[in-house]
Amino acid sequence: MAHVELSLSEVFVPAARTPTEDEFDNLGQWSHTVTHAAEPCLLIDADTTVVAISSSGCELLCLGHPEDVIGRPLLDGGLRLVDFTAYSSELTEQESDKIPPLLALHSGRLARGLLRVREPDTDAPGTTVDAISTPVLADGDVAGSLTFFSKV
Question: What predicted TM-score, i.e. pTM, was given to this entire model?
Fold first, then answer.
């Protein structure tokens, strides 16, 4: 029969410190995570301004570099969304408002859908991307949305 011994040792207690303002702020916490993520992801605030985007997210969405997008409204930052028709026409403003990052922001609920993204200055059909978004809360209110992308 097996024999197991347990011993107790002194418990490590980390030194007390005062959290920074960003550590209390959900967007601030997620911003750091998204910026350093290997996965394609995006964080926008309640005004649809890009707070953070991963490098792989920029690459997948054909947005250049994160520095080119952060601080700009999502739909004014170079994101070219096209429909799924053979002609790949650009989405209207009304259609663009239904993409998962914005839908999660406005509805306060989880949103998922497919997007078709086209590189700037080309007429290529575009890349199809699966997007899943969740609202980010601050004090019980929707303060932004966090979206993860995957190429289809």
Answer: 0.81
